[in-house]
Design brief:
2 domains, alpha+beta, three-stranded antiparallel sheet, 24% strand
Length: 157
């Protein structure tokens, strides 16, 4: 990022009191910059608020497109999604499977609603693979339990 300097001046009668007038890259306001900050390459932004704005979201060096995976579940940054679905988030990210299920069934999900992946793969968020279940019925639909029942059935004949 480039720093724009308008003017260099001496503030006091000392030799080391050299200052600069610079323009903030975010808000375009003029601000005063000491020689020490100038030498260290600082003074691109007028304050920490402008600095923070410039390093958030897509401007952040660690931005990954607004998608992250936690414990196998895919989540999407809420700035990439319509405000209509922001109720699904408990942070800045919304679980993708809850978003897709809400759209599929065209209903507002409750906190107690569990979105079950029929094939047991947490990041497989196809509409056909998602079902809304209660905590009571979720236990019966778990993929591992279904497999165990199937194996027992095949072993017993």
């Amino acid at each position: 990022m480039k720093r724009e300097i308008i003017k260099k001046f001496q503030k006091y009668d000392r030799k080391d009191s050299i200052y600069y007038i610079a323009i903030c890259n975010e808000c375009k306001k003029e601000f005063e910059l000491s020689n020490n900050y100038y030498k260290k390459g600082r003074g691109i932004f007028c304050n920490s608020i402008c600095n923070g704005k410039n390093k958030s979201g897509k401007k952040n060096g660690r931005w990954n497109g607004g998608v992250k995976e936690v414990r196998g579940y895919v989540s999407i940054h809420k700035n990439l999604i319509s405000k209509k679905y922001h109720y699904l988030s408990n942070s800045n990210y919304i679980p993708e499977h809850r978003l897709i299920a809400s759209k599929k069934y065209n209903k507002k999900l409750k906190i107690s609603d569990i979105i079950h992946h029929l094939n047991g793969i947490r990041n497989d968020n196809r509409k056909e693979n998602l079902v809304i279940v209660s905590s009571k019925t979720h236990e019966n639909k778990t993929f591992e339990k279904l497999l165990k029942k199937r194996i027992l059935k095949l072993e017993n004949g």
